[in-house]
Automatic annotation (TrEMBL):
Keywords: ATP-binding, Chloroplast, Kinase, Nucleotide-binding, Plastid, Serine/threonine-protein kinase, Thylakoid, Transferase, Transit peptide. PANTHER family: SERINE/THREONINE-PROTEIN KINASE STN8, CHLOROPLASTIC-RELATED (PTHR46699), SERINE_THREONINE-PROTEIN KINASE STN7, CHLOROPLASTIC (PTHR46699:SF4). The lineage of its organism: Eukaryota, Viridiplantae, Streptophyta, Embryophyta, Marchantiophyta. This is non-specific serine/threonine protein kinase. InterPro entries: Kinase-like_dom_sf, Prot_kinase_dom, Protein_kinase_ATP_BS, Ser/Thr_kinase_AS. It comes from Riccia sorocarpa. Residues 27-49 are annotated as: Disordered. GO terms for molecular function: ATP binding; protein serine/threonine kinase activity. Residues 155-475 form the Protein kinase domain. One of its GO terms (cellular component) is chloroplast thylakoid. ATP binds at K190. Its EC number is 2.7.11.1. Its main location: plastid.
Length: 581
C-alpha cells in the first residue's frame, strides 16, 4: 500500500514530467499512474507500437527524467509484487489502440489446477465415471461394428453341461467359423429374460478385463414361438472341463492342480509348504480377477468354487456365471433388497448396498453418483468374503463339503464373526485336518491366517479389498522376511486400516512398547494401560453421531437419485435387450 500511495502521490506533479519518446516500457505507459491524461502530457502522434511521442510542456528535462526512472522502478516493483490498482498489476492495454491488449489465453492458477485435479480424481475413482462413458459410448459402439454377430442357426448344440434357474448350458460348436480363431469348442447358454443382464456384464468384462472371466464370444436374442417370450443365447469359448469345485472334491487337492498351473510337479515333498504355494497361486488368480471386476464397477455376488473354472489355454482360473452380477457404474441388475445369493458363500450383510439405497436411477445419474455410493457401501467386499470362504475351504479339507461349510457358517455366527474365537473353539477339538490347516496358515509369521481374517469379517468396511489383498505379504513369495522396508510399511497401513479400532490400538501399543520406555521416548506398561483405558468404547457418542450423519447423507443422496426421471435416450443403449413382449 505504501508503494501505491507513493506511486499515486507522484501524480500531482503534473507538467513536471517529460517522457522521452521510446524511453518507457509499454507497461509503464499503460498504468494509470503514467497515463498521459493523469500526467498532464499532451499526446502527439503515436506510432503503431503504441509508444507516444510526447512533447514537454515545461523545460525541466533533467529533473523529470530522474523522477520517471524512479517511478518506473517503483511500478516494476508493484507489478512484481502483484499488489496495486487493477491496471498497475495487470496488462490493460492501451485505451486507443486495443490491439495492444494482451491476448486472452488459458490462465493456469493454483486453485484452478487443484479443482481440475479434484474433478479428475472423482471421475476416475472407483468404479470410474470417465472410463465408463468412454466404454459405453465409444468402445461398445465400435465393438458392435467390428465383431461378427451370430444367430442360433450358426451353432450345433452338444452335451448338456448344466441347468440352473436362469437357463441351460450346452457344449456346442459352430456350423461355420466366422473368425480366424478355431471356434471348435464353445459353450452356449440358453437363458430366460435375465440373460440380457448376463450379456451386458460379459460384454463389459470382454472390453475391460477379458482375461478375468471366460472368453465371451457373443450374446443375442432369439424370439421363441408365440406367447413363450424371448430367449437369450450366450456363447463362450470352452475353457475346460474342471471348475475349482470339481478339483477341490478330489482327495488329492491341491496337488492335482499343480501340473495344471505350473506345467510340472514340484520336487518338494508333500506338506504344508508345497500346499501353501499352490493355494497361494489359486488365490492370487481369484483375487486378481476380482480386482479387475471391481475396478470396472462390477460386483459378481455369486463367487463360489462352482463358478471358477480352470482355463486350459490360459493355464489359470477364470470366473464364470455373471448372471447375478451387478454393474454399479450404471446400476444394471441392482435391485435393493434383492436376495439372489447362494447362502453358503454370501457375506453376512446379504446386500451389496445399504437397503436404504433405492433402485438404480437412470444410468447417467447413476454413473455420476457411482463413486459416492461405492465409497459409502464398499459393495466389492461382498465378493471378498465369498473368496475368503473359498480360501478357508482350500486350507481345511474337512470344510469342503456343503454340509460342513453350512456348519462353519453357523459356528462363526455364534462366535460373532470373530475368527479368533472360532479358531480357539476349533483348536480345542484337536482335529488333524484343522491342525494341518492352521499349520499352513501360520507359516511365514502367520500371514495366511492374517489374510483370512482380513477377508472374513462381519463388517464389509473392515474387510480388505481385492486390490489390497494382492499387496498382502501372503502373496509375496518369501513371506515377511523377504519384505522390503516399504512393503512392510504398506502392510502396516493395510493392517491398521482394516482392523477393528481395538486391534489397531493394540498394534500402536505394541509399536510404542517396543520403542522403549520413558527414557528413550517410549511409554511404560502402566502408561500404556492408562492409554488403553482411555480408548473410547466402540459405540461412543462421536462415532454414533458420525454414523448417523453418514446415513443421513446417504439417504439424502438416495432420495435425490430417486427423484430424477428416466432419460429419453435410454433406448440408445439398453433397449436392444428389452423384451418385445
Ligand atoms: N466357458 C466355459 N467353459 C467350460 N465350461 C463352462 C463354461 N461356462 C460354463 N461352463 C460349465 O457350465 C456349467 C454351468 O454354467 P453356469 O454356472 O454359467 O450356468 P448356470 O445356469 O448359471 O448354472 P447355475 O445356476 O448352476 O450356477 C458350469 O458349472 C461349467 O461346468
Amino acid at each position: 500500500m505504501a508503494l501505491q500511495q507513493l506511486t499515486l502521490g507522484l501524480n500531482p506533479i503534473q507538467g513536471l514530467v517529460v517522457i522521452p519518446s521510446g524511453s518507457r516500457s509499454r507497461t509503464n505507459l499503460r498504468s494509470p499512474g503514467h497515463h498521459p491524461a493523469a500526467w498532464g502530457i499532451q499526446k502527439g502522434k503515436r506510432n503503431r507500437s503504441g509508444v507516444g511521442e510526447c512533447r514537454c510542456q515545461l523545460g525541466l528535462v533533467g529533473a523529470a527524467a530522474g523522477v520517471v526512472e524512479m517511478v518506473e522502478k517503483l511500478n516494476a516493483l508493484v507489478l512484481g509484487v502483484g499488489v496495486g490498482l487493477p491496471c498497475q498489476v495487470m496488462d490493460c492495454g492501451d485505451v486507443v489502440y486495443r490491439s495492444t491488449l494482451p491476448k486472452q489465453g488459458l490462465i493456469i492458477t493454483a486453485p484452478g489446477v487443484a479443482l481440475a485435479l479434484l474433478v479428475a480424481t472423482y471421475l476416475w475413482s472407483q468404479p470410474g465415471v470417465a472410463p465408463g462413458f468412454w466404454d459405453m459410448f465409444v468402445l461398445a459402439k465400435l465393438e458392435q461394428i467390428i465383431r461378427p454377430s451370430y444367430k442360433k442357426e450358426d451353432f450345433v448344440l452338444g452335451k448338456k453341461l448344466g441347468e440352473g434357474a436362469f437357463g441351460t448350458v450346452y457344449k456346442a460348436s459352430l456350423v461355420k467359423s466366422k473368425s480366424g480363431k478355431s471356434d471348435s469348442e464353445l459353450v452356449v447358454k440358453k437363458a430366460n429374460q435375465y440373460g440380457a443382464v448376463e450379456v451386458w456384464m460379459n460384454e463389459r468384462v470382454r472390453r475391460a478385463c477379458s482375461s478375468s472371466c471366460a472368453d465371451f464370444i457373443d450374446g443375442f436374442r432369439e424370439s421363441k414361438r408365440k406367447g413363450k417370450g424371448d430367449e437369450f443365447w450366450l456363447v463362450w469359448r470352452y475353457e475346460g472341463d474342471a471348475t475349482l469345485d470339481d478339483l477341490m472334491k478330489d482327495k488329492d487337492f491341491p496337488y492335482n492342480v499343480e501340473q495344471m498351473i505350473y506345467g510340472r510337479v514340484d520336487e518338494l515333498p508333500k506338506g504344508p509348504e508345497r500346499e501353501n504355494r499352490i493355494i497361494r497361486t489359486i488365490m492370487r488368480q481369484i483375487m486378481s480377477s476380482l480386482k479387475n471386476l471391481h475396478a470396472i464397477g462390477i460386483v459378481h455376488r455369486d463367487i463360489k468354487p462352482q463358478n471358477i473354472i480352470f482355463s486350459q489355454d490360459a493355464k489359470s482360473f477364470k470366473i464364470i456365471d455373471l448372471g447375478a452380477a451387478a454393474d454399479l457404474r450404471v446400476g444394471i441388475n441392482y435391485v435393493p433388497n434383492e436376495f439372489l445369493l447362494d447362502p453358503r458363500y454370501a457375506a453376512p450383510e446379504q446386500y451389496i448396498m445399504s437397503t436404504q439405497t433405492p433402485s438404480a436411477p437412470p444410468p447417467p445419474v447413476a454413473a455420476a453418483l457411482s463413486p459416492v455410493l461405492w465409497q459409502m457401501n464398499v459393495p466389492d467386499r461382498f465378493d471378498v468374503y465369498s473368496a475368503g470362504l473359498i480360501f478357508l475351504q482350500m486350507v481345511f479339507p474337512n470344510l469342503r463339503t456343503d454340509g460342513s461349510l453350512i456348519q462353519f457358517n453357523r459356528q462363526l455366527k455364534r462366535c460373532d464373526y470373530n475368527m479368533v474365537k472360532w479358531r480357539q473353539s476349533t483348536e480345542a477339538r484337536n482335529n488333524p485336518d484343522f491342525r494341518r490347516g492352521f499349520e499352513l496358515l501360520d507359516r511365514d509369521e502367520g500371514v495366511g491366517w492374517e489374510l483370512l481374517q482380513a477377508m472374513i469379517r462381519f463388517k464389509g468396511r473392515q474387510r480388505i479389498s481385492a486390490k489390497q489383498a494382492l499387496d498382502h505379504p501372503f502373496f509375496i513369495r518369501d513371506g515377511l522376511l523377504g519384505l522390503t522396508f516399504l512393503q512392510k510399511l504398506r502392510l502396516q497401513l493395510i493392517r491398521t486400516s482394516f482392523q477393528d479400532r481395538s486391534e489397531a490400538f493394540a498394534w500402536v501399543q505394541n509399536l510404542m512398547a517396543k520403542s522403549g520406555t520413558k527414557s528413550v521416548g517410549g511409554f511404560t506398561e502402566a502408561e500404556l494401560q492408562k492409554l488403553k483405558d482411555k480408548e473410547p468404547k466402540a459405540k461412543d457418542t462421536v462415532s454414533r453421531n458420525a454414523l448417523a450423519s453418514a446415513l443421513k447423507l446417504q439417504r439424502k443422496v438416495a432420495r435425490t437419485i430417486a427423484t430424477v426421471g428416466e432419460p429419453a435416450n435410454k433406448r440408445n443403449w439398453w433397449n436392444r435387450w428389452e423384451s418385445t413382449n
